[in-house]
Design goal:
The structure holds 2 protein chains of 2 kinds. Chain A is α+β, with helices and mostly antiparallel strands. In chain A, strands 4-5-7 form a 3-stranded antiparallel sheet. Chain A is built from 4 helices and 7 strands; from the N terminus they run H-E-E-E-H-E-E-H-E-E-H. In chain A, about 25% of the residues lie in helices and about 20% in strands. Chain A has one domain: Alpha-Beta Plaits (2-Layer Sandwich), CATH 3.30.70.3270. Chain B has 25 helices and 33 strands. In chain B, helix 12 packs parallel to helix 16 and helix 18 packs across helix 20. Chain B starts with a strand and ends with a strand. Classes of the chains: A alpha+beta, B alpha/beta. At the A-B interface, strand 4 of A face loops of B.
């Protein structure tokens, strides 16, 4: 066995390791340090609000396009005979964060936020109701 | 047939086809917005433009141009596509692009074509319309902003429904579809306009915003209201029937439905449905398990013999009726019946003796093939509205003559050239006998009639029924009766139509024999002729065919009497609601109070179920398998569209379990029972679920004619009193429709209809609460003043539990009542 063939790769490897000691670390000291979320990151959904009410008109396109079948919409008729989402629920345990719902929405009523901390203690807490999804001002 | 070339394809088409139809037959799709196969060509939308070589390449509408031999047609040249795109652009110019909130989205012809032709932008610009949206009624929403002016709604309302509620109003760019004086829609709410609307201008409000069309699973079924046997497509989502879906290729009626068929489906998923068996404990109905409830019922039925009796609704499937009969036979009782015992007598007694068959020797498709329709009672439209549409079309499109014999005028009387003879109530049989007499006297009878058994007796029996003699009591002129007789006898093909049902005690065996005599005398049988007796409920004809009526035991009336006298100790009522639908409520209630053990299987806690000792939750037609037989003996197969509601079970399962508990042998599946039916019921031979398919099959009726002299009851007027006749109202059928939201929106309560003359005399105004009293009892009903009623006659529908007319009505064809404010 040739000693050069044995030791050269080890030294080369150690060189890379050593060089990282002098670089800025990749890891974050989460939760004290927060990541900078990319603008187009697909996190928790938010229902957009306009004129103090959800923009959603309950057209059912998002539950139709959703590949994970995690969106439940029930339409209602308000006092002006307009259509609105009486119920809008997303089951985050099923959601695959593909963003098709945002793409399908004809009225720009749903978007995806940078919110990624979705851990919770019970399964039912992962089902986000309309109130929880409405964008926070 | 003519030969022509469409898109380089050699095809043939019928001589009277349009280019559009010829293309459709040969599988070539031409886009169109204003066409429906039931309606006459109109040519409004300009989407179906095609090029015909012989017409120098001009673009012509395919839907209004008839084919000619050797025509060379091109349906999609670049020029045509350009023209169609422009048509779409112009339509979209004023159309609000509110697809996300429009309920038609996904099922919209305009949306589909826009997508197909990729009309992504518009070269023109204009303001959208700002018409007011009509929310005035709870069934049909009219948003004229979305309208593309195809005119289908106005045309179907005129050509088929013959109501004429909608029409084009204004001209030019202002043109819109509107009602009279631009008012709110106030019609019979059949929803035909909604079904044909290619865009979201007309929407069914009960289904509004409930679901998108693509989320629905369509299940084909048969309507469970009247006996017409209309086919339905149920739109189901999450085990709920959310709507009825229009399918122009379905059934003899091409998807056409009435108010209750289209808007009355909500009873299936009603919150009021019974979901668990109930057993009366310490005087209170308490929830119980199926085992407990059925064990209790079985213990009462076991060996009960003639002290047990059964009443069934003719809404059950044929298979269930057979099992119910078997259950009673296992218990040792022959006391079973349906429909108050008299409502099927026209078939089971009248036709049985006159035709040797318990069914009508005519079918609904015969109506449009006939030259003359003789309709007994204008109520034929109300009891069977889709048959009514067939009559409308026969009269308006096929030129059939319409003669009506009735105790009041009605919608049918308004048809072009319809002649209505309004006679005094209760003398139908006498008038028809007089017609038969006139036919005999004027030697208009068929040559072979004299050879038919009973001819001599009939001649003798009719001696007293000369038109002149009957004219007096019936309030008609002898000449009018003679004219009706001549019209009938001289028509090439003539069809007699009359309804029967709980509310029509006068339409009995004698009336059936009387009309049968007319048909036999003149030999009016075969295609386009005959007699069509329209039984009331979806499977009334089936109940008769299955023999679910008193043959050796007690009939329904006698069963009620038996309960009152104590002879009947156990009564099993399946689906029937005698407290509301049988005459004389006080007597029925007393009888049901008296009976020792009352079992009711029903969908709802009806007035009758509330009195029961055991209540069994049954399944609706949408949850079970079986067959229904329509009035013209079309046997149709239904399959479950949704799962069973709660713990409910089908009547088939209930009867099967009980038979097993009584030690009998019950067939396991409806298919097995249908096999037995096919083997034993005349006319059903050779049928199976597979052979029935989606369209069903007619059970043929073989007529063995005999003349039977019918007895004509004489109704003596009572001085100072008004004649009350009962009947069905257009929006309801039996008592079930009380649980359908649509029918209840339009007609929520009973009423009494009276003439303007009587109203003026008694100083009654519309909606006054009247006290209607007879020897039987009294009730309070709202007044409705209409021009159709003759003076001295009142009409009241019988469907309603609250303030029911059966508190006043004892079961006589005519009840004499006093009316006070």
């Amino acid at each position: 066995m040739n000693p050069i063939n044995t030791f050269v790769p080890i030294i080369q490897g150690l060189k890379i390791t050593l060089s990282h000691l002098f670089k800025k670390p990749v890891t974050l000291q989460y939760p004290t340090e927060r990541p900078k979320v990319a603008e187009r990151f697909r996190g928790l959904h938010a229902l957009n609000v306009s004129h103090n009410k959800a923009k959603c008109v309950a057209c059912y396109l998002c539950p139709t396009v959703c590949p994970a079948k995690c969106i439940t919409v029930e339409a209602g008729e308000d006092a002006n005979h307009d259509k609105y989402a009486a119920k809008y629920e997303i089951d985050m345990l099923r959601c695959i964060f593909c963003g098709y719902c945002v793409e399908a929405c004809p009225v720009d009523a749903i978007r995806m936020t940078g919110e990624f901390e979705l851990a919770n203690y019970s399964r039912k807490d992962f089902v986000y109701s309309k109130e929880r999804l409405l964008e926070k001002k | 047939m003519v030969n022509l070339t469409i898109d380089d394809k050699q095809v043939t088409a019928p001589k009277n086809a349009t280019i559009y139809e010829a293309a459709k037959i040969n599988g070539i799709k031409i886009p169109i917005l204003c066409h429906d196969k039931k309606l006459k060509p109109f040519g409004a939308c300009r989407m179906c433009l095609v090029e015909v070589e012989q017409m120098k390449g001009r673009q012509i509408p395919a839907c209004t141009t008839p084919v000619t031999d050797g025509m060379i047609i091109r349906t999609s040249t670049p020029d045509i596509i350009k023209a169609r795109k422009m048509v779409l652009e112009l339509l979209l110019l004023n159309h609000p692009i509110d697809c996300p909130v429009c309920d038609k989205g996904g099922d919209c012809d305009l949306q589909n074509l826009t997508y197909e032709y990729q009309v992504n932008a518009n070269r023109f610009s204009d303001e959208k319309f700002h018409h007011e949206i009509d929310y005035s009624n709870p069934l049909i929403e009219r948003d004229m902003n979305r309208c593309v002016l195809c005119g289908k709604c106005a045309r179907i309302c005129d050509e088929i429904v013959s109501f004429g509620a909608l029409t084009f109003i204004s001209r030019g760019i202002e043109t819109k579809i509107g009602c009279e004086f631009e008012g709110a829609l106030n019609c019979e709410f059949c929803g035909s306009c909604v079904s044909v609307c290619p865009v979201g201008s007309l929407l069914a409000r009960p289904f509004k915003y409930k679901a998108r069309f693509w989320a629905l699973t369509n299940h084909k079924s048969v309507c469970s209201y009247c006996g017409t046997g209309c086919n339905l497509t149920l739109g189901v989502k999450d085990n709920k029937v959310l709507t009825t879906v229009y399918d122009e290729n379905q059934g003899f009626h091409n998807g056409q439905l009435c108010c209750r068929g289209r808007f009355g489906y909500q009873f299936i998923n009603s919150d009021k449905r019974l979901t668990t068996p109930l057993v009366r404990k310490n005087g209170v109905l308490t929830e119980a398990g199926w085992d407990e409830a059925l064990e209790l019922v079985a213990s009462r039925l076991k060996g009960s013999g003639a002290s047990a009796a059964a009443l069934s609704t003719p809404r059950l499937a044929n298979e269930e009726l057979v099992l119910f009969k078997k259950l009673m036979e296992t218990a040792g009782s022959a006391n079973y019946d349906h429909s108050a015992g008299y409502a099927h007598a026209a078939l089971t007694e009248g036709f049985a003796r006159s035709f040797g068959a318990t069914a009508s020797p005519a079918t609904i498709p015969d109506i449009q093939k006939s030259d003359l329709l003789l309709v007994i009672k204008t109520d034929s439209y109300e009891t069977h509205p889709v048959v009514g549409f067939e009559i409308n079309m026969a009269v308006k499109n096929k030129g059939a003559k319409l003669n009506i014999l009735s105790d009041k005028r009605g919608k049918l009387s308004k048809l072009p050239d319809a002649t209505t003879l309004v006679h005094t109530p209760g003398c139908e049989v006498a008038v028809i006998n007089a017609m038969a007499k006139a036919i005999l006297d004027e030697k208009l009878a068929a040559g072979s009639a004299a050879a038919i058994p009973g001819y001599a007796d009939l001649e003798k029996a009719l001696a007293g029924f000369t038109p002149d003699a009957v004219a007096g009591q019936s309030g008609l002129s002898a000449a009018a009766i003679r004219q009706f007789a001549t019209d009938y006898a001289k028509a090439g093909k003539a069809l007699i139509i009359f309804p029967i049902g709980n509310a029509y005690p006068g339409h009995n065996a004698d009336l059936a024999s009387a009309v049968a005599n007319l048909a036999i005398l003149t030999g009016k049988f075969g295609e386009g002729s005959g007699v069509l007796c329209m039984a009331e409920k979806n499977n009334s004809q089936g109940a008769v065919d299955m023999g679910f009526y008193a043959t050796s035991g007690l009939n329904a009336g006698q069963i009620i009497d038996g309960c009152a006298s104590g002879a009947i100790k156990t009564l099993f009522i399946a689906g029937e609601n005698p407290v509301v639908s049988y005459p004389n409520r006080a007597a029925v209630t007393a009888a049901l109070d008296k009976v020792e053990f009352l079992v009711v299987s029903d969908l709802f806690m009806t007035e009758t179920a509330a009195m029961a000792d055991v209540v069994l939750p049954a399944c609706s037609f949408a949850e079970k398998e079986g067959t229904f037989t329509s009035v013209d003996r079309r046997v149709q197969h239904i399959k479950p569209a949704i799962g069973k509601i709660g713990k409910s079970r089908t009547d088939f399962e209930i009867f099967g379990t009980l038979i097993a508990k009584l030690g009998g042998q019950a067939p396991a599946t409806p298919a097995a029972v249908f096999g037995e039916i096919a083997a034993s019921v005349p006319g059903y031979a050779g049928m199976s679920y597979a052979s029935l398919g989606e369209v069903g099959a007619f059970a043929p009726v073989i007529v063995k004619a005999t003349f039977v002299a019918p007895k004509a009851a004489v109704v003596e007027p009572v001085a100072g009193k008004l004649a009350l006749v009962t009947g069905s109202v257009l929006y309801h059928n039996g008592t079930l429709s009380q649980f359908g939201e649509g029918p209840m929106y339009v007609c929520p309560e009973g009423y009494v209809e009276l003439s303007r003359g009587d109203a003026a005399k008694l100083k009654i105004e519309e909606n006054d609460l009247l006290n209607v009293a007879s020897a039987t009892g009294s009730t309070k009903l709202k007044a409705r003043i209409t021009p159709r009623m003759p003076e001295g006659v009142l009409f009241s529908p019988y469907h309603f539990g609250a303030a029911g007319i059966n508190q006043v009505w004892s079961g006589a064809p005519v009840t004499w009542v006093t009316v006070t404010k």
